[in-house]
Design a protein that fits this description.
This protein is of the alpha/beta class. About 40% of the residues are buried. Helix 2 packs across helix 4. The radius of gyration is 18 Å and the shape is globular. It has a single domain, classed as 3-Layer(aba) Sandwich (Rossmann fold), CATH 3.40.50. It has a seven-stranded mixed β-sheet, with helices on both faces.
Length: about 270
């Protein structure tokens, strides 16, 4: 891993290592602590960091000035809720290429290069040190084809970071059995955003077992895996958000996982 000095990763990457970079993530996302709104203050009071925060802190740990980075499914934003943090990492790395089948990628202002295509259709002579897939895996209908592309695009010793929803979380189960019109409505009410940023789901890469098996077949090994509790459903309403975080903390006190969650997996290509 240290041979070419591209990826600044410590074996194995744990949440504690990502936590070192959480102040930077929160600074870019929310600004000066003295002027932050009620949402970050409430989360800090409960000791909670969102799945987005953990994913972004992980990339702050991994990306350095010699990193060639491919972001799959980047759309118009590399980080949905932290554009300044993404801009910082884009300026830090050596190369950032964004690909997405949606024409949203044409609106992405921070990638160095962009291509409007599916992962398996992207062709280049390069191999990348880091490939990231933020909220992409749940949409992939043909995982074997995606893995073939990753095996081709990642250099030996390079990493793939998968950040996606858990297959059996309540929101995923509801999304699996409801039409796209409901997805558009729920996203607009709970999180905001437009219909052009919402896509059909397949959930074929959304358990640890499925991811581990697929990546093993593709020549990767699991480097790190974390379940991330997701307490953002009522983030627009202070009373409900407080109740949700209180429930989260109560469950943690008795050793239970919050039912809504995301997955954060890191996979290293074998040499």
């Amino acid at each position: 891993m240290r041979g070419r000095g591209r990826i600044r990763v410590e074996i194995s990457l744990s949440p504690d290592l990502a936590l070192r970079h959480m102040p930077d993530v929160l600074h870019f996302k929310y600004g000066d602590p003295a002027f932050r709104g009620w949402t970050p203050i409430l989360r800090e009071r409960f000791g909670y960091c969102s799945p987005d925060d953990w994913y972004e802190a992980t990339l702050f740990h991994l990306i350095g000035p010699d990193t060639d980075w491919l972001d799959v499914g980047c759309g118009r934003r590399v980080f949905a809720t932290n554009p300044e943090g993404a801009r910082h990492l884009a300026a830090t790395c050596r190369l950032l290429v964004g690909i997405d089948p949606s024409d949203n990628v044409l609106e992405n202002e921070i990638v160095h290069e962009r291509a409007q295509c599916m992962l398996q259709d992207y062709r280049t002579d390069r191999q990348f040190d880091l490939v990231t897939m933020r909220m992409v895996a749940e949409h992939i209908e043909h995982p074997a084809e995606a893995m073939g592309a990753l095996s081709r695009l990642v250099r030996p010793g390079g990493l793939v970071v998968i950040y996606t929803v858990a297959k059996f979380s309540p929101a995923s189960l509801v999304a699996a059995v409801t039409p796209m019109s409901f997805h558009h409505f729920a996203k607009r009410v709970l999180w905001g955003g437009s219909e052009k940023d919402t896509f059909p789901v397949a959930y074929r890469m959304n358990t640890r077992r499925d991811l581990r098996s697929l990546f093993r077949e593709g020549g990767f090994r699991e480097e790190s895996f974390t379940y991330l509790d997701d307490c953002r459903a009522f983030g627009q309403w202070k009373t409900l958000a407080t109740a949700e975080l209180a429930l989260w903390k109560a469950l943690r006190t008795v050793g239970l996982r919050y039912p809504e969650g995301c997955l954060l997996g890191i996979y290293q290509k074998e040499r």
